[in-house]
Amino acid sequence: AQSVTQPDIHITVSEGASLELRCNYSYGATPYLFWYVQSPGQGLQLLLKYFSGDTLVQGIKGFEAEFKRSQSSFNLRKPSVHWSDAAEYFCAVVGRGSQGNLIFGKGTKLSVKP
Amino acid sequence: DAGVTQSPTHLIKTRGQQVTLRCSPISGHKSVSWYQQVLGQGPQFIFQYYEKEERGRGNFPDRFSARQFPNYSSELNVNALLLGDSALYLCASSLELAPYEQYFGPGTRLTVT
Lengths: 114, 113
What we know:
heterodimer; A: mainly beta; four-stranded antiparallel beta sheet; B: 11 strands; about 0% helix; globular
């Protein structure tokens, strides 16, 4: 069965520091991969997606993610974090051949220190 | 352009009651999916509809049902509410089925007392 693991429940970084949020997926073939962000009490906003091609994908708000097939990973990165980036981040996968339902990880809560 | 809209924003119900949640997709989007997000967890897939037909169902009891209308809007119904149904219910729309990305609404916060 497909699954997504986000090993870090909560991460705290200082404003201006770099950020990497980890995501590992379990699936037999190359899946479609997504990162979403959720601010408190809000819905989810799509940050970026990977379908095929270049394994380094750029998203909104200065985020990027790299797909590594050998490690079954799709880690999210940002070179310099802003206080407004404090939120919960979810990695998700859609299995190829499915109708498109998303399978989410449990999320990583990001706190930003001034 | 308007994003995905959901109504109501908040809802308080009593155990055993029934509830209907509504979703309007982004204009032109034909697929609507419903997710349940319990506090502290990632969203879990409930249903997906495309062109008014159910195309996917998650591991939820038969108390949960949904439908999609000719204008692509959708309703999620939950009967015989349990305390454990308290959650944020999210609706997402996409242009077509996979691999198109899904865009989420703000959600409906359901509290069952």
